[in-house]
Write a structure and sequence with these properties.
Blueprint lengths: L11 H15 L11 H8 L3 H13 L3 E3 L5 E3 L5 H20 L3 H15 L1
Antiparallel strand pairs: 1-2
């Protein structure tokens, strides 16, 4: 999902930061989604852990991600309390669907049917 171009004049941490912002803006990374650990992402990209840590710090300062101690780093939830509740409910739904072994398309069909039934 993320790449670092060592030949780019843009520093690697800034490349990562920009890619994260784009992924969140496009919906590729959903609110509440857990991010890879600094070490794992650094290993995957072949960069120093400090590079990823700096990108994460800048993203956190900007409010794009939030770090929850040992629990890890996550895409920030919307600031609207109602949307936050909806995002938490959606995250719980995803966890339940994954534990049941259903795929995303089937889960979306089930959720859409449930929403239509409540309308």
């Amino acid at each position: 999902m993320f790449t670092v171009d060592p030949s780019s004049p843009t520093p690697p941490f800034e490349q990562l930061r920009a890619q994260f912002v784009d992924a969140v803006t496009s919906g590729e990374l959903a609110p509440g989604e857990r991010l890879p650990t600094v070490r794992r992402l650094a290993d995957d990209l072949g960069v120093a852990p400090g590079t990823v840590a700096r990108a994460y710090r800048e993203l956190e300062t900007a409010g794009v991600i939030e770090t929850r101690g040992r629990a890890g780093s996550f895409v920030s939830l919307d600031r609207d309390p109602i949307r936050q509740q909806a995002q938490r409910a959606a995250a719980a739904f995803v966890e339940q669907i994954r534990s049941l072994g259903l795929d995303a398309d089937e889960a979306l069909q089930i959720a859409a049917a449930a929403l239509r039934a409540q309308a």
